[in-house]
Amino acid sequence: MSDTKQMTGRCLCGSVTYSMAEQIEDYGVCHCDMCRRWAGGPFFATHDTKEIEFTGEEHVGRYNSSEWAERGFCKTCGSSLFYYLIPTGQYMMAVGTLDNQTNLAMNTQVFIDEKPASYDFANETTTMTGEEVFAFYAPKD
């Protein structure tokens, strides 16, 4: 990773910190049942980030929630940190763990078909059903 670290974040207790080379401007929200159970509500996450540098990695727990993804969390305080796509090496970092969340815009909502009727967001976003998400991210032959 380059010496210019543009975005940083950490878990609640500070045992895990991270930095990203790219500047994040927007993020998405996942409404799937697994994300809601894991994050205690919809999961607000950055889009497809590859260059992440962790400190305190010995405090990072990884849970294989499917054949293609892991969910990362702090083993000390329990903070949800990231969703990791195993085949591509892409991280979706929890927006709430970013040190600076100023000027971020929510631009997508996925698994909109699993969103409970008890909440809605006022933002105008691109939405995708679970089927559309799997079709979009499926390996292309």
Walk me through this protein's architecture.
The chain is globular, with a radius of gyration of 15 Å. It contains two helices and eleven strands; from the N terminus they run E-E-E-H-E-E-E-E-E-E-E-E-H. A hairpin with a 4-residue loop joins strand 8 (80-85) and strand 9. The N and C termini lie far apart (30 Å). It has 141 residues and is mainly β. It has helices at 33-39, 130-137, and strands at 7-10, 17-20, 26-30, 43-46, 52-55, 60-64, 69-74, 80-85, 90-93, 105-110, 126-128. The strands form three sheets. Strands 4-3-10-11 form a four-stranded mixed β-sheet. It has a four-stranded antiparallel β-sheet with strand order 6-7-8-9, with no helix packed on it. A three-stranded antiparallel β-sheet has the order 1-2-5, with no helix packed on it. The mean pLDDT is 92. The protein has a single domain, classed as Metal Binding Protein, Guanine Nucleotide Exchange Factor, Chain A.
- Name of the CATH class: Mainly Beta
Low-confidence region ranges: none
CATH architecture: Beta Complex
Return the CATH topology: Metal Binding Protein, Guanine Nucleotide Exchange Factor, Chain A
Q: Give the termini distance in whole angstroms.
A: 30 Å
Q: Which word captures the global form?
A: globular
- Say how many strands there are: 11
Q: In total, how many domains does the architecture comprise? A: 1
What sequence of helices (H) and strands (E) makes up the elements?
EEEHEEEEEEEEH
Q: What proportion of the residues form beta strands (DSSP E)? A: 35-45%
- What is the arithmetic mean of pLDDT? 92
Number of helices: 2
Share in helix: 10-25%
What's the alpha carbon Rg, rounded to whole Å?
Answer: 15 Å
Largest sheet: 4 strands, mixed
The secondary-structure class comes to mainly beta
Q: Please list the strands of the largest sheet in the order they lie side by side.
A: 4-3-10-11
